[in-house]
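Before relying on records like the one below, remember that each one covers exactly one chain. Contacts with other chains, cofactors or solvent are not represented anywhere in the record.
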Amino acid sequence: MARTESLVVADAGPIIHLDELGALDVVSDFQQILVAEAVWQEVEHHRPQALQNKAIHWISGT
């Protein structure tokens, strides 16, 4: 099956909780994950290591 371009817009809750569960890799199949500035700040406050995951291409929506 061919991989298609995909963009996901993420909210803080799923990012934080998937990281707490050690399951953040479930979103690594997406090419890009757009994170609004307010969401980025919330994740940085509660779970900054989630945004350090090199397997995920985060895009900050500044």
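Residues 7-61 form one domain.
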